[in-house]
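Appendix B. One record, verbatim.
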Amino acid sequence: MALKDIFGQERAKRFLKQLLSLGKLPHAVLFSGMQGIGKLTLAREFAKLLNCLNPQSSDCCDACASCLKIRDGHHADLVWVKSDGAYIKLDQIRNLKQRLSFRPFEGKWRIVIIEDAQDLREEAGNALLKLLEEPPKQNLFVLTTLEPQMLLPTIVSRCCHVRLQPLEEIWIEKYLRDTQGLPPSQARTIATMAEGSLDRAKWLAEPARIVHMNEVLENISRLRELSMVDFFPLTAQWAKGSADLEQDLECIKLWIRDLVLSRLVTGHNPMLQTDEPTLKQARKVSVESLLSLFVDIENAHLRLRQNANKQLTLEGVCLAIKESLYGESGWNSLSQWREDLSF
């Protein structure tokens, strides 16, 4: 693969080629954008171009020894930094600093790719900032992040910021048909649900995914008439039994998106099947409230990525859903088991 083989991101690719052709390569580049749109792929292919032994038409040849080593992750001058557990730690940046004290071993440039730079702990971010303030020669930093606001402003200010765009639905649909063997109608539906993310499209295309999403929606429907006594056992069981709570929150965000579109777009065909009582109640809630609920879920998703407590996070999400959709009327004063008691 070369830059030309990366679908989409034409503006970003042109910009990178122009920087190289004008000899104005910065010491640090920041790629930002949603998950699954090719940030890391673009970083790797740009590293190929910088060290290619036989560049062609402002692109790498993808065949020389340097390109092949970078492709396979064996190039001595490609340094990949990513989280060790939940965070990128100070020791990782210290080790990087020591490595950067030497000139590149075999290439013209040493490329340091910092994956998900929002995972930098504060002390690690400050240590990286010192490297960016006095960058060693012939070293290029490539940082990737979901949003630049998730990084220290001082780090962002020392990078050339390149924002990547969501991928086009038509390409995601073609990818799902060609590589996953999905029928056109299913590929089209998933491409729409993916919202420009190839990673999300692959996730949605997994055989058991729809079954699991229906289980998540069933839990949401159970929130409608829960008492406070029953609420916390449900969320505790949900959090304990979920293999990937982040993916559950993704499902909830897709569900809220469906509710919003059903209010704004005439004839919108829901992608997820919501039970009629919940759908009826959602029609009574303003679009602004639904959008505010989406933001709440997104913030909870972010906290979960930052290693927040799973059960507390899920409790907050379920409380937000219950209060936004049902308000005080959604709380039964007694749990079902007490209502069934005869005195």
